[in-house]
Amino acid sequence: xAEITVTVNGxxxxxxxxxxxxxxxxxxxxxxxxxxHVGCEHGVCGSCTVLVDGRAVRSCLTLAxxxxxxxxxxxxxxxxxxGLHPLQESFKKNFALQCGFCTPGILMAVCDFVGRRTDPSRxxxxxxxSGHLCRCTGYTSIIEAIYEFSRHxxxxxxx
Amino acid sequence: MKPAxxxxxxPATVEEAAKILAQSAGGKVLAGGQSLIPLLNLRxxxxxxxxxxxxxxxxxxxxxxxxxxxVGALVRQSTFGDSFLVQSKVPLAAQGVSxxxxxxxxxxxxxxxxxxxxxxxxELPVALVALGGSVSVVSEEGQRDIEAADLFVTDFxxxxxxxxxxxxxSWPVGGSEWGFAFSEFALRHGDYAxxxxxxxxxxxxxxxxxxxxxxxxxxxxxxxxxxASRHLLGRRPDEDVFSSCREAAxxxxxxxxxxxxxxxxxxxxxxxxxxxxxxxxxxxxxxxxHG
Lengths: 159, 291
Ligand code: FES
Ligand code: FES
Fold this sequence. Notes:
A: DNA polymerase, domain 1; 5 helices; 16% strand; B: alpha+beta; Uridine Diphospho-n-acetylenolpyruvylglucosamine Reductase, domain 2; Enolase-like, domain 1; 4-stranded antiparallel beta sheet; binds FE2/S2 (inorganic) cluster
């Protein structure tokens, strides 16, 4: 066991972890942040995507012990007491989710993506989305939601 | 699934990492983890110890030096692909890395890790062999360089020993008289390619005087297509040259059937990809935009 301190959505947490504990399980089981979903646990589905120091990563392919001293942002960081984040609003408006299983991972990937690609084309958005499996929507509405958000809120990221 | 238990160490220097690896039997280097952690999660690999090199300073650089672009072991695939230096000086590698994994996995996965993993379906090993690059590895005994041609032994096996760590990869720079192209075919973007091709040609006065065609995904490691490459030498590529290269490439590979495609289909793909890549490399060498 090793003691780690991680800042998650602005709050510091100190926990004892086994080296083999995945960041996805740390977030869900230790911190109760179940917004981060787990689909495949080998990097394929994208539903576990979170931000570590502002960069989107697969939390199922990251050990909790690796983020000792780092800042993590999960989907829970997006909405505030005043309402949804503009990216979430865009998903709602464009019917970009049905069951919502894939949504948290996509939202967090987009927070990174729009910060690094100015005015992405639909093709670039589709290329980015190839790392996220959605079994419901058929992707078209997700592409539209991201496209619209990227035009209105280019600097929008997790808070 | 979850990984089996292992010990974890996070050395602060390369020397310390080398020492830990020398003392442990069966320690594994953890860099980006995008290939290693899936293997742990699936319990296909049970290392006793992970040596996490992510906090070692000074391994995160991309610099041009004496005709090569040197890339530190902690450079992420996304940083590598987005780097203007890489795009302008080693465009073949920039094209190759865009096919590696997905947007998010490239944020973590490293260039060196992809080489060390030696997956026969990996793009970066194919690009490194095509460019004649190399890696530098360090152990307690010191540092040595390994040429790309000697690095990839077979699937998931390199000539790097268990006590050595890659500290840098070197990517030779091509001038304006070079033409490069990378092309591959995968069932879905980001999936493993059924076949891939990297081409590097050097053209003097409209005639090819150096040519390297390397195939990936169709053998247990990057495959230099010697015969097909030879068909280009001393020639100004025309339809005859393209078709003889294509035939030689098809004849040189014997890919196995799998659930995605028959070997015969992959062989056919090889011809299609060689044709497309050669035309695009030729255009690139004549200064026209990529086809
Ligand atoms: S659970 Fe992490 S990518 Fe699927
Ligand atoms: S909304 Fe159901 S998986 Fe995407």
